[in-house]
Write a structure and sequence with these properties.
Keywords: Cell membrane, Membrane, Transmembrane, Transmembrane helix, Transport
GO molecular function, one term: transmembrane transporter activity
Distance between the termini: 46 Å
Order of helices and strands: HHHHHHHHHHHHHH
Structural class: mainly alpha
Subcellular location: Cell membrane
Pfam families: FecCD (PF01032)
Radius of gyration: 22 Å
Strand content: under 5%
Number of domains: 1
GO biological process, one term: siderophore-iron import into cell
Largest sheet: none
Number of helices: 14
Mean pLDDT: 84
Length: 350
Amino acid sequence: MSCSPLEHDAFAADQAPTARQNGKRLGLIAAAIVLVFVICLSLAIGARTIPVIDVASSLFGGNVSIDSETIWSLRLPRTLLGLMAGIAFALSGALMQALTRNPLADPGILGINAGAAFAMVAAIGLFGISHPLSLIWFAFAGTGLAAIGVYAAAMGGRAGATPLRLTLAGVAIGSVLRGLTSTLIFLDPNTFDHMLNWEVGSLAITGYDNLVYTAPFVVIGVLLALICAPVLNVVALGDDQARSLGAGLRSARIMVVLAVMLLTGAATAAAGPLGFLGLMVPYVARWIGGSDQRWIFAYTLILAPIVLLTADIVGRLSMRPAEIQVGIVTAFIGAPVLIWLVRARKVTAL
């Protein structure tokens, strides 16, 4: 029995959303497989390459050797930090883009990373504070003050805090804060000698102390972001329509700001002020997952560590046995992406 053209069109329309959803799920699974592969490479590649079989034996077989010590004390902490920092920086960028409807919102471009870095350096240089857990709270304060400063600077004039004004204010304030941070570091190089790599952005750590202190804050930030995702879909419609639909805009904004502070502050304290991840990854996630923030956040959680760990691997391979810091590699990738975004589209609302 054949169906009429109208029935056939209705059936096709019903099946199209299901097909798109299935495609997004398959894409997410494929990205997860790529992430596992990149994690294996991160554990295997360094100043000396360790076969993947030996990596697995060290992690799961109880193998005790020099390679095993290298993996457990150096490469595993580094890889876990890449996972955590990638998720934190990229997800905070996705949150900021969704809340401000600004496709160029990013913790690095808007000066949020610079605020956290300056607050930490000031705590060390001016107050003699060095314990990682204490420094995290200064990083949180720095992110909050930087965010307030950028928003206040962008609010002047009739147009208010437009995406372009926020971007320009963030670049200006971020440049000032980075200049102040560099000044403090070079005024007392002995105190900040160990922070030179951190200031560029680095995953090179020994041990798990930084991870233990910062991971809980990142986990809380991720949970807050996932809770906010449905409301941010409504926020994208505009404030008036969001209110008419009963969305709690004030509570949503508070939760988003809190999540961004936790994610950016903790990641900056652990890995330094890495830039451009919050710009690149959400853009790719939006291109793949569409406008639904739930899909954007899901893809961001997987794509971000892929990008950061891949950049770190490139940095390790570029000058073996030495290496290029991951912050430099991400800047080389992110700067052309930013230029392309500005040239390819107007800096308007999402």
